[in-house]
Write a structure and sequence with these properties.
By secondary structure, the chain is an alpha+beta fold. The protein has helices at 2-18, 118-123, and strands spanning 38-45, 53-54, 61-67, 78-84, 94-101, 105-111, 127-135. The chain has a four-stranded antiparallel β-sheet.
């Protein structure tokens, strides 16, 4: 009886890890993979690590490379991002260029009307919070 109770407990605890609750309806490249291969990977790219870079052309444009190669995606995932900064900072609106999302990382770009430069992103402590939804097999 104890053995049966133990086995049921183990099954109940491990079942959620065996069943995938993530369903990806579409991806940037249009491909799909088996549902058990679906993976969520997320992180924070701190303003203190990596670098914000100013574009050499135009004004008010900066970018940062986000590397998520450790996630093990086999194709370009669906990526969402947001910026978070200090209370007095002015983190601008951001976007991800569709052509700049790969299976190993992406470039996040910020465009501002007030001649934003890379140092402004550091001074405002603009961290990039990201989530990627894709497949690892």
């Amino acid at each position: 009886m104890k053995l049966l109770g133990y086995l049921l407990t183990v099954m109940l605890l491990t079942y959620p890890t065996l069943a995938s609750n993530l369903k990806i309806l579409s991806t940037p490249d249009g491909g799909t993979h088996p549902e058990p291969c679906a993976l969520t990977c997320s992180g924070v790219a701190s303003y203190q690590t990596g670098s914000w870079h100013s574009y050499s052309f135009g004004s008010g444009k900066v970018f940062k490379r986000i590397d998520y190669s450790e996630c093990g995606f086999v194709s370009s995932p669906v990526v969402t991002v947001t910026l978070s900064g200090n209370w007095e900072g002015k983190c601008p609106a951001i976007f991800i260029g569709r052509d700049y999302v790969t299976k190993s990382g992406f470039y996040v770009q910020a465009r501002a009307v007030d001649n934003r430069i890379a140092q402004d992103m550091v001074d405002s402590q603009c961290d990039v919070y990201w989530s990627a939804f894709g497949y690892n097999c």
